[in-house]
Amino acid sequence: MIRLLGRVVVAAVELLFWALHLIGRFVRALRDGLGAARSLRRGQLHCPRGHVVPMQGQARCTACEFVYNGSLLSCPNPECPVPTTAYLNCPECGLSVRNPFRWGRA
Questions:
Q1: Prediction pTM value
Q2: What's the number of domains the chain is made of?
Q3: pLDDT tens, 43-55?
Q4: Using CA of residue 18, residue 20, residue 26, residue 29, what is the dihedral sign?
Q5: Residue 58's beta-bridge partner residues?
Q6: Among the residues of 1-106, which ranges form H helices?
C-alpha cells in the first residue's frame, strides 16, 4: 500500500512539472509571436522607432559571403550553413529588427 501511495505521489509531482513545462513553452511561443506581429505591420517590417525596413534588395550573406539580389531575410545559396537572417538593421536609425518569420531564440 505504501509503495502504491509513493508511486501516485511521484506521478502527481511529475505531472505537475510537465504541465508547468508545457505552459512555459506556450507562453514563450506566444511572446515570440507577439514580438513578430509588433515588427511586421501592414506587410512591412518596422523598426522600434517606426521606420520602414526594406525586406528586398541587394545583400551579402554574413554566413557564406554570397552576394545576391532578393529577400534580405533568407540566403538563396543552397550551401549556406545558416540560410535565415536573425535580424535586419534599420537604414535610417540603425536599430535592429528581428526576422518576424524566424521562430525561437536560437
A1: 0.61
A2: 1
A3: 888 988 889 999 8
A4: negative
A5: 69
A6: 2-39
Does residue 46 lie within any of the structural domains?
yes
Q: Which residue has the cell 512555459?
A: 24
Question: What is d(CA 103, CA 37) in angstroms, rounded to the nearest whole number?
Answer: 12
State which residues form the domain around 20: 2-98
Residue written as cell 554566413? 63
In a domain, 85, yes or no: yes
Residue 104 placed within a domain: no
C-alpha cell at 94: 540603425
* SS3 label, residue 98: strand
Residue 94 to residue 100: CA distance in whole angstroms: 18
Structural domain includes residue 105: no
